[in-house]
From TrEMBL, chain A:
The keyword Nucleus applies. Keywords: Cytoplasm, Nucleus, Proteasome. GO terms for cellular component: cytoplasm; nucleus; proteasome core complex. GO terms for biological process: proteolysis involved in protein catabolic process. The keyword Transport does not apply. It is found in: Nucleus. This is Uncharacterized protein. Its main location: nucleus. It comes from Penicillium atrosanguineum. Pfam families: Proteasome. Transmembrane segments: none annotated. InterPro entries: Ntn_hydrolases_N, Proteasome_sua/b, Proteasome_suB-type. PROSITE patterns: PROTEASOME_BETA_2 (PS51476).
UniProtKB/TrEMBL annotation, chain B:
InterPro entries: Ntn_hydrolases_N, Proteasome_beta4, Proteasome_bsu_CS, Proteasome_sua/b, Proteasome_suB-type. Keywords: Cytoplasm, Nucleus, Proteasome. The keyword RNA-binding does not apply. Belongs to the peptidase T1B family. One of its GO terms (biological process) is proteolysis involved in protein catabolic process. CDD domains: proteasome_beta_type_4. GO terms for cellular component: cytoplasm; nucleus; proteasome core complex, beta-subunit complex. This is Proteasome subunit beta.
Length: 260, 260
């Protein structure tokens, strides 16, 4: 049958109708992704981790909704999220983000049912990487950040690319305004390009050492980062959702952002 | 001369030309579901004190042809929720059959609790997301209206990619550009939905439908409107737009044959 449709073998004579009538290979017209905009940000301290994100959902120049949270409690009760000890933020394609959140949530719950103890943040971080890599050839189009407290009670933050590469970090910005927020964080959290005055001759000064910041300072940095991002990025705005995880549990607060 | 068996009994290629196999798909994926055929335009919805209103016009277009002028695009689910469909009409009818079978199954079940609008929206979003992940999308953008588990008014959107969002007022398609700004002006974010009466909500939707009929070329002045309250669903499917004023049309210059 295949050779019946194979025209290259048939003799070609100069008839007007003897040109090839094979159908051209057609491209698939359906693109399964979209970008829902928004930005997220995570910073850790010595005994806490903060994850924040704006609540705007966009498609193109449209604002879908002003209240679509991007930060989720993982492994807690369904409606309230009570009892969770891990938080996840997802930014990019929101439908993939939701699917990813629900899968990780199910994994963390199953772990507790099967082992009778909560999943550690480092184990959850590895599992999230495996979930993302499992869809290596049809990825979840999201930039995920996972946060919690490690075995020593220190703030733990893991950031991911869409196919599961991950790294533990002190701070990370993701999403539409990541390029606006991340340099600010480099300077204010990791003290990049900050030098100790009078510590050397001329320009050979000593770098200011990065050290864990107090919670109040970090909260203010998060709010400053977003108020600045809102000024310069049209896909960021409406409300700022902030989750703070400490040994006392998870605290969630919303702050207003500009709605223009 | 071709003596191969696959050519036996066939007209000679060198005389009659090669067999036209262009209508046989020889390669590539299935493509007939990767674009919509007969489509419905905008769906608009608003929450008010004690319920939700949803409206669509009664047109199904075939490209730019106004093909079917009596298509009901609001479908009620039991007496609890209404789904408004935009996009492909055959996919709408398929989803409607799905919902019908669920409704029957739920009614025969012994647990006695019915699916509310929120459950229905979650289900639809998952159907959409599964189908887009199989590269065989259901080409619709729907609004789901009714009540959530707490008995609060519920209005949420789901589209062919599985993207979901919820807001006090929503519109799909052209309505996202034309109706949402009107609704945001009449019912600003500061105004709680408890201060919006049923009559105000219905009047606002009628205004939006009128503006859509003025400016959306694939729209109709016959429409359906559903008011969902605790008392039940009030669905009117053969409404006529009233109070049109085309006086503004005379002042529009610069289109078509007349260019000055």
């Amino acid at each position: 049958m295949t050779s019946l449709l194979d025209h290259s073998r048939g003799e070609t004579v100069g008839y007007s109708f003897s040109q090839s009538t094979a159908a051209p290979v057609r491209q698939h017209g359906f693109y399964p992704y979209t970008d829902n905009g928004g930005s997220t940000l995570g910073i850790t301290g010595s005994d806490f981790a903060i994850l924040a994100g704006d609540t705007r959902s966009t498609s193109g120049y449209n604002i879908n909704s002003r209240m679509v949270p991007k930060v989720f409690k993982i492994g807690g009760e369904d409606e309230t999220g009570e009892g969770a000890h891990i938080i996840l933020s997802v930014v990019g394609f929101a439908a993939d983000g939701n699917a990813l959140k629900e899968r990780l949530d199910a994994v963390v719950k199953m772990y507790k049912y099967q082992h009778g103890k909560s999943m550690s943040v480092s184990a959850c971080a590895q599992r999230l990487s495996t979930i993302l890599y499992g869809k290596r050839f049809f990825p979840y189009y999201v930039h995920a950040i996972l946060a919690g407290l490690d075995e020593e009670g220190k703030g733990a933050l893991y950031s991911y690319d869409p196919v599961g590469s991950y790294e533990r970090e002190q701070c990370r910005a993701a999403g539409a305004a990541a390029s606006l927020i991340m340099p600010f964080l480099d300077n204010q959290v990791n003290f990049k390009n900050q030098y100790i005055p009078g510590s050397g001759e001329g320009h050979a000064l000593e770098q200011k050492k990065a050290e864990p910041l107090p919670q109040e300072t970090v909260k203010q940095l998060v709010r400053d980062a977003f108020t600045s991002a809102v000024e310069r990025h049209i896909e960021v705005g409406d409300h700022l959702q902030v989750m703070i995880i400490t040994s006392n549990g998870i605290e969630e607060v919303f702050h207003p952002l500009k709605k223009d | 001369m071709n003596h191969f068996p696959e050519a036996w009994g066939r007209p000679r290629d060198d005389v009659y030309g090669a067999y036209n196999s262009s209508y046989l798909q020889t390669s590539g994926p299935k493509t007939h579901t990767s674009s919509p055929a007969v489509t419905g335009t905008s769906v608009i919805g608003v929450k008010f004190n004690g319920g939700v209103v949803l409206a669509t016009d009664n047109l199904a277009s075939y490209g730019s042809l106004a093909r079917f002028t009596d298509v009901k695009r609001l479908r009620s689910f039991g007496d609890k929720a209404v789904v408004g469909f935009g996009g492909d009409v055959s996919d709408m009818q398929y989803i409607d059959r799905l919902l019908e079978s669920i409704d029957i199954r739920e009614n025969y079940s012994t647990h006695g609790n019915m699916l509310n609008a929120k459950n229905l929206h979650t289900y639809l979003a998952k159907v959409f997301y599964k189908r887009r992940s199989e590269f065989n999308p259901l080409w619709n953008h729907v609004l789901v209206a009714g009540f959530d588990g707490e008995g609060e008014p519920f209005l949420s959107s789901a589209d062919l990619l599985g993207t979901t969002f919820s807001a006090p007022h929503l519109a799909t398609g052209f309505g996202a550009h034309l109706a949402v700004p009107i609704l945001r002006r009449v019912f600003p974010d500061e105004k709680p939905i408890e201060e919006i009466s049923r009559d105000q909500a219905v009047a606002a939707l009628k205004d939006c439908l009128k503006v859509l009929f003025y400016r959306d070329a694939r729209s109709l002045d016959k429409y359906s409107i559903a008011v969902i309250t605790k008392e039940g669903i009030d669905l009117k499917e053969n409404e006529q737009l009233e109070g049109q004023s085309w006086a503004f049309a005379e002042r529009i210059k610069g289109y078509g044959a007349q260019t000055n």
